[in-house]
Amino acid sequence: MNGHADAFRTISEVAEDLDLPQHVLRFWETRFTQIRPLKRGGGRRYYRPEDVELLRAIRHLLYGEGYTIRGVQRILKEQGVKAVVSLRPEGAALSSPRPSVPRDEDGEGESDFAEDGSDSGPIAPVAVERLHHALAELAECTRILEAARAS
Q1: C or N: which end of the chain has fewer Cβ atoms within 10 Å?
Q2: Which residues contact 81 (CB under 8 A, 6 or more apart)?
Q3: Domains in the chain with CATH codes
Q4: 0.70 cut: is pTM over it?
Q5: Residue 120: how many CB atoms within 10 A of its CB?
Q6: What is the pLDDT confidence band of residue 143, given thresholds at 50, 70 and 90?
């Protein structure tokens, strides 16, 4: 972390601090209207400390807790920025920069993945159950095909 805690920070500093690519931060600005860095000449972004805390909390919900963007948007709309920032345990270490299987704030899985298309990382129990079911169906399909070929 560069500079004083109250200082404005560039997108490269924030991206490094949060272990995220800069394009993800720019993308989140389009999805979360609450993120409003100051933009100077040439479009250079300067993030306030409260912007960084919100980004840190959003990152935790998306990547640490497995929420979808839509789920975080809903929490922000219904409960506000302070509620989202307070959901991240103080001083908690950042989790893996790749999300787990996305879920809504009610814990239900969704079919959309992270904005970068990744789907790696630990898998939520709901997803594991779905994967076991799909695997069983595939095994049954394989059995049927093998029986048909043998005939």
Answers
A1: C
A2: 34, 50, 54
A3: 9-120 (1.10.1660.10)
A4: no
A5: 11
A6: confident
SS3 67: strand
The tens digit of pLDDT for each residue in 66-123 reads 889 998 999 999 988 888 888 765 544 443 333 333 444 444 444 444 444 444 344 5
Residue in the block written with tokens 């307070």: 86
Q: How far apart are CA 135 and CA 17, in angstroms?
A: 39
**C-alpha span between 122 and 116 (Å, rounded):** 17
Task: Identify residue 16 by its one-letter amino acid code.
Answer: E
Which residue blocks in 19-151 are alpha helix, DSSP H? 22-31, 49-59, 69-79, 81-87, 125-150
Q: What are the CA-CA distances from residue 5 to residues 53, 58, 107, 129, 136 (Å)? A: 11, 19, 34, 44, 53
The band of 29, judged by pLDDT with boundaries at 50, 70 and 90, is very high
For residue 25, the SS3 value is helix
